[in-house]
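note to self — DONT lose this again. spent like an hour looking for the file last time. sequence + predicted structure for the chain T wanted, 487 res
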Amino acid sequence: MAKPKRSTFERLYSEQMNRQQRRDLARRLAGNDPGLSIVHSNAGGIDVGNESHFVAVPPDRDSNPVQEFGCWTADLKRMAAWLKACRIDTVAMQATGVYSIPLYDVLTAQGIRVVLVNAQHTKNVPGRKSDVQECQWLMKLHTYGLLRDSFRLEEKMEGVRTIWRLRDRHVKDAGRAVQHMQKALTKMNIQLANVISDITGVSGQAIISAILKGERDPWKLADLKHEMVRASRDEMARSLEGNWRADLLFELQQAMDSYHFAHRQMQDCDRKLEGFLASLPTRTLDRPNQAGIPAEGAALEEKKRRKKRKTRRNEPIIDLKAELKRICGVDLTSIDGIDVITAQTILSEVGTDMSGFPTENHFASWLGLTPSKDISGGRVIGTGKRKVQNRVAMAFRMAATTLLNSKTYLGSRYRHLRKQLPSHAAAIKAMARYLAVLVYRLLTRGEAWVDRGAAKYEQRRSEWELASLNSKARAKGFKLVPMTPAG
């Protein structure tokens, strides 16, 4: 796996120096003349806050090189004018949640390049506590080119990301409402969840609606079940006898209203999302000639036999698959495990322009799907888990878990990883990384994913194991000879 990319400051401070050298570097950076090459001579630093922002420029640009500005729009414009007057063309600031977004928009509109940096990449020696020192430290690091810019989504995709994230919150609100409905029913001793698998289905919603309308007869409530419910009428009736406390009925009604309201909000988001997607241009990729890579017959038969997946209640009401294929130029859902929801999450969070990631390894590292390695003196002295919160990585992990029973090439690969790696979590992470690599290749090269079936992967794995055994035998001075049947 690729080594996680670090900023120049991290590499200088953490990897290439011993303890004494790091102390010397810290003293030099804290001084007026660190002895480093100046990369950005017109650089500034901003410490972003909730109520105000502290801005630092080089001491020779203004008699008061550190100033405080308010967070309102007028002061942000005044800050931009002051930076322009000080001949500042680039500034560095930490990506502190949503507080940096208005500031970023105002500064970029004035032609000032903004570098959003990870707060973990700007650590200083102990003792730097004030906002004034923070902005000065950012300016100094940026002046010597020691900071790395964060990934920024294309401007045309920001509307899609906003609506999709908002819709995701509504989905979670609907899930919490279902839990509240279940809690109210349990406190009333209505054991509806014991006889039907989903209380938000046709039977569950019909029974709950009848209860809220005043029906108390368990036999009449049992008659509302769908014919596909396996539980008998007697079992349904026994589970629908309970206490009808007014406070619990009110709680149930509130949860029911919240559930339907969340779904109406999701539908509004779907209609708004449809407009944003329609405004995106059609993407055309130069597809390589893959005529010599036909899909295996077993994989095609598996896809034909596979039953049409039941539409989930939280899925969009619009045809996302066709729009995603038009916008991306490739069909991401052709990869087993990548459904429409996952593909839309990838598009809204990453976009279609993958130029920000030079290689697929850089993309996997940004997702946090690579191990963390501590290197000293050119040797790996420790490994651990990277703490990265990434919506796309979570989507890839969820997609990986769906491959457990898949009779495809990817499904066989995932089952093999579960056997080889020490934990299921490690297998999920490894499979998620492979899915991310496949998506990267589709978006950058225009290659189509061809599923060759589980048998093909097992055949290749056998060939790899045999080649490994032959290599080990030759290293020991032996030669493998196939067994002949006893005659």
